[in-house]
Design goal:
The structure holds 2 protein chains of 2 kinds. By secondary structure, chain A is mostly helical. Helix content of chain A is 66%, strand content 5%. Chain A has 2 domains: 265 residues, no CATH class; 107 residues, abc type-2 transporter like domain (abc type-2 transporter like fold). A 4-stranded mixed β-sheet of chain A has the order 2-1-3-4. The two termini of chain A are 50 Å apart. Helix content of chain B is 40%, strand content 25%. Chain B has 9 helices and 10 strands. Chain B is globular. The chains are: A mainly alpha, B alpha/beta.
């Protein structure tokens, strides 16, 4: 039986110049470790990791700050027990001989709480007892620990106020006269709000990065390796060369977007099961995106990717060398990604206007799809503006591929 | 009978640098034609224009009657090119390389496989047919590039420094292939620095300097004209003469 190899598959493909160019591009990419890392490894590994590692480091439940307690007041056991019971602090009692500042500065503890000797006595006599916390503002876990200790102090203090007022026959609500009731106008769960913030950024970012490495390689890389001259002596039009390269990049981007979505799903699943602590309400942790909206996310992620690739193809064709192309790519990737961070925080009125911009419009569409609020008219205009942008970029790429000055400039 | 190549007033300017300066040449059919000249003489630029990779700034040329500006695809169909750099894809194998370029040229599968096998055997690369090009020696790569150029049995073969940097055995094999090719009545346009090689292979030469053709003719004609004994002496005589002018 004939062994199935890339050669035998290639041999059996129809005799089309375009298909032949696309196949060579894909085979070249498949054998290039750098492109494979950017296309598959980056989305499937980096997205779940970058979503969850900061969460792990910041989550007091999974990674509790260490608190040393110097209890100089032997009667303040209630407050210490309460801190131990929170579960978001790793509490250790320390002896009075130890220096609290040293313990924090030498990272033995993230923070140290000192309960003064007369603390209970002051409270019982109706006065105010001050706790002392030694912490390190440059240490995130120390700052998190401080806010947990302060929340516990506030709770403990309120209980004391409540008891004092009841002892005097006064309703405790007298010290909290203003209440707040909130009504959410959208049926958005906490999980959806989180995904709405994270999905467009991560998918947008990885989609831009996905085919970028390959788009650089197939243009500037080909010039650098001097493989272009022989290619240009073939009876193939420049339009076909550019389209063949573009379709290769498009196919790789499609593969990358699939892995990107899988990576995102894995990342969000890990986040939901390990770190989701926003609310105790049942159902708030549910993330429900309909099949149509999932399809929209996939399609528009591909559009982001392909638009970014087309920009890179133009810029990298223009570049003199691979190094110069990488410099242009780095600058462009930064230019693309900085506004993506903004999309996580922009007000809805601004997002409505961004929807018609290539690259950013599809990201806004993805965000809307997560919230299940996609508008058909908006989708069509966003699609049309992206397609027009890609067409203009491909036209430019063909022009550059037809220019001696660009192809052979050194 | 029409000429293999007719060049009329061909000029190529890069920014302000004149790489090829009003070149006129007539290359008869069925010969090995040498283009000789020092570095920067414009040989490679001239070959690139004739193979339609570069567009002339002025003038034009016809390759077997096809204008390089008006019918570039037709010209590319009838020529084979071995550029100065082999221009091979390192991640493909020799067999895949021939398949890729053969398909780009629209060759029928049966003919393509038969030609590929024959060439791989002829140049002793049968055993390396599935090895990645990046792992091959310089001589082997040059052979693969030459196979790519002659795969579709072109009417005219452009060779830019085909034996440059090769070991004696590889260079000898490639010269053998060029001789064999020319013996079938096909044209070879050979750009080289190697005067001995040009003397061995070429029936006619053009000597270029600073973008211009200094002299053209058969080697015997040039010997008579310059009163020199061999091509190297002729070359030195003509290039020195140009420098003194």
């Amino acid at each position: 039986m004939k062994r199935l190899s890339f050669f035998t598959i290639w041999s059996s493909l129809p005799n089309s110049q375009l298909l032949n160019i696309v196949w060579r591009e894909l085979l070249d990419a498949l054998r290039d470790r750098r492109t494979m890392v950017a296309t598959i490894m980056l989305p499937i590994v980096l997205v779940p990791l970058s979503l969850n590692i900061p969460m792990f480091l910041m989550s007091p439940k999974r990674n509790p700050p260490s608190l040393g307690i110097l209890q100089l007041d032997k009667e303040a056991g209630n407050f210490t027990s309460m801190l131990k019971g929170i579960g978001e602090l790793r509490v250790t009692e320390i002896s009075p001989e130890e220096n609290a500042t040293d313990l924090v500065s030498k990272n033995v503890f993230d923070l140290v709480l000192i309960i003064p000797a007369n603390f209970t006595q002051l409270i019982l006599s109706g006065g105010r007892g001050d706790l002392v916390v030694i912490y390190d503002a440059s240490n995130t876990r120390s700052a998190t620990g401080l806010s947990i200790v302060d929340a516990a102090r506030s709770y403990y203090s309120n209980k004391i106020v409540e008891r004092r007022l009841r002892e005097r026959g006064i309703d405790p609500s007298i010290v909290d006269p203003v209440g707040l009731r909130s009504f959410n106008i959208r049926e958005v769960t906490g999980a959806q709000a989180f995904a709405g913030m994270m999905v467009p950024y991560f998918i947008g970012l990885v989609s831009i990065l996905a085919g970028g490495s390959f788009a650089t390689d197939t243009t500037a890389g080909e010039k650098e390796r001097k493989t272009l001259e022989a290619f240009l002596t073939m009876p193939v039009t420049r339009v076909k060369i550019v389209m063949g390269k573009f379709l290769g990049v498009f196919f790789l981007s499609m593969v990358s977007v699939i892995f990107d979505l899988i990576g995102m799903a894995i990342g969000i699943s890990i986040y939901m099961s390990l770190f989701y602590e926003i609310s105790m309400e049942a159902g708030n942790a549910q993330l429900s995106i309909g099949p149509l909206n999932l399809f929209l996310i996939a399609i528009f992620a591909l559009i982001v990717s392909v638009t970014g690739d087309a920009v890179l193809m133009v810029v990298c064709t223009y570049a003199k060398s691979f190094k110069e192309a990488q410099q242009y790519s780095s600058f462009l990737l930064s230019a693309f990604t900085i506004p993506m961070i903004g999309i996580m925080f922009f007000p809805p009125s601004l997002l409505e206007n961004l929807v018609y911009l290539p690259i950013y419009g599809p990201i806004v569409v993805m965000r809307n799809a997560v919230f299940n609020v996609s508008a058909p008219g908006q989708l069509i205009l966003c699609l049309a503006s992206s397609m027009a942008c890609i067409a203009v970029l491909l036209f430019l790429a063909v022009r550059l591929f037809s220019s001696d000055k660009v192809l052979f400039r050194t | 009978m029409t000429s293999a190549i007719t060049i009329e007033n061909l000029v190529k300017v890069f920014d302000s640098f004149v790489a090829v300066d009003h070149v006129n040449l007539e290359v008869p059919r069925g010969i090995v034609f040498g283009i000789l000249g020092p570095n920067g003489a414009g040989k490679t630029t001239l070959l690139r224009m004739l193979s339609t990779v570069l567009k002339p700034s002025e003038g034009t040329a016809k390759v077997l009657g096809h204008d390089i500006l008006e019918e570039p695809i037709k010209v590319r169909e009838i020529i084979g090119v071995l550029p100065e750099d082999t221009g091979l894809y390192d991640r493909l194998t020799p067999a895949e390389t021939l398949l890729f370029y053969g398909k780009l040229r629209g060759m029928e599968s049966s003919n393509l496989f038969a030609r590929s096998e024959a060439l791989l055997t002829l140049l002793g690369l049968s055993e390396k047919r599935h090895a990645k090009i990046g792992t091959l020696s310089k001589g082997m790569k040059q052979k693969v590039a030459l196979m790519r150029a002659v795969l579709h049995e072109p009417e005219i073969l452009f060779l830019d420094e085909p034996t440059s940097g090769l070991d004696v055995m590889s260079a000898r094999e490639i010269r053998g292939l060029i001789k064999d090719w020319a013996s079938k009545g096909r044209n070879v346009i050979l750009s080289t620095h190697n005067m001995w090689e040009a003397q061995q292979l070429c029936s006619m030469v053009a000597i270029m300097d600073k973008g211009r053709v200094v002299s053209v003719g058969t080697i015997e004609e040039l010997e008579r004209m310059t009163r020199q004994r061999d091509l190297e002496e002729i070359f030195v005589h003509l290039i020195r003469g140009e420098a003194e002018r």
